[in-house]
Amino acid sequence: MVHGLLVRVVVKDPAFIDATFVPEFSRLYWHSNAAEKDTLTYELHRPEAADSATDAERDEASRTLVILERYTNAAALKDVHNHSEPFKGFGAWIGEMIGAGNIASVKVEHLEEIAVPKPAADSGEAEKAAADAPAEVVAATGGDPNGILVFAGARPGEAPLYMQHAEEVGQRVAALGRRLVYGGGTVGVMGAVASAADKAGGKVLGVIPAALAPREASGAPVGEVVVVDTMSKRKDIMFSNASWLVVCPGGIGTLDEFFEVLTLCQLNAYRCRVGLLNTENFFGPLLAMMRHLVAQKFLEAETVDALVVRNTPGELFEAMESANDLVAVGFAKNLKW
């Protein structure tokens, strides 16, 4: 039986939340999501005051945080999570903050799952859709396939313009009112994209494998983060949530993701618009290699020609607006998956 927990923390000063609490909570958050296999949910939320709320209620809401926890069973909480070093360290820090007056109160509420039976009869369509979709996709997406997926490196790279352009990409995604979908890291080029989108008021969905969280995530998470156990699940969720792909400078992982999208589109298993942000001619050698593949009859020219390649974020996003999706050509047009 799933065991749940709601922890309600009220601080004295709203500024304490982002300046101190969230950074301190970060290690426990990432450890719980990445290293505890029986932790189903470990999230930090801010309550939203109702439109009819009084000034006092709005003030309390601005000073309140809610930690939502779900475990496969009570033992996963008591015997594993509560005995972890990050939990012990955070618990000691909470005690210090209460003593110093920075935290006004902490209320813990245990939740018992109620088994809800299926309705006696229905059309079966919703049940079939839920069964066909990976659980992580259903939980994370909210049913929005129109995000903008960005592939980018977990390192800043050599040229300063890589990070500058990354920030502009995040800002432009937010300005379009579309959700940024990315690999969930908070460092390097990908982290710059996500942070900029978040600061600009955009929605952000990050998807990160548990094994990569310690390497690619540092500090507080950005937006909504889904932690998965495999790279393939990461890609499944990202692909299902986007109709545009923007590829920024990055390493082998970025190129792997880019070529998987090309492969799926080429085989009629996926379709989206694909743009390369060619900062400092980063993708010039790669494009030359792809043209070589065309010349040697290993690749259709239509696939390369469909790529939108521009040198600046402004030029790229303008061109993407009127671009065509990358689709299968030749025999692959008729493939059914």
From TrEMBL:
Entries under SUPFAM superfamilies matching the protein: MCP/YpsA-like (SSF102405)
GO biological process, one term: cytokinin biosynthetic process
Pfam families: Lysine_decarbox (PF03641)
GO CC term, one of those recorded: cytosol
Superkingdom of the organism of origin: Eukaryota
UniProt-listed InterPro entries: LOG (IPR005269), LOG_fam (IPR031100)
Gene Ontology MF, one: hydrolase activity, hydrolyzing N-glycosyl compounds
NCBIfam families: Rossman fold protein, TIGR00730 family
Name this polypeptide is given: ABM domain-containing protein
Source organism of the structure: Neobodo designis
Lineage: Eukaryota, Discoba, Euglenozoa, Kinetoplastea, Metakinetoplastina
